[in-house]
Amino acid sequence: MAEEVYMDIPAVEKMSNDFKNFGEVLNAVAKALEAISFVLKATAWISFGATAALSAFVDRIKPNVQRAANKMIELSGDIQSAIRAYRDGDYSGSRRFC
Q1: Tens digits of per-residue pLDDT, 56-81?
Q2: Predicted model pTM
Q3: In the 8-state DSSP scheme, what is residue 98?
């Protein structure tokens, strides 16, 4: 016997918006890291290379932040799709979250 699934749509929409907002914040952080890296590289000649190591560290962190931002935005879209499918009664995409 199949169990019926109920969704608190406003709460799930808030969760989706939270993921989207967090993704946008992470995108802003990634852009800030890019700017910081540029400044550190530009000033490396003044500090005789001391800021070059810090710039390399920032360059290693930035892709991870960007990847996390993309995942948050993707998850927000997936949740919105699940909400639309629930409202429409379409269960063809129900395996996305299994």
Answers
A1: 889 999 999 999 999 999 999 999 98
A2: 0.76
A3: -
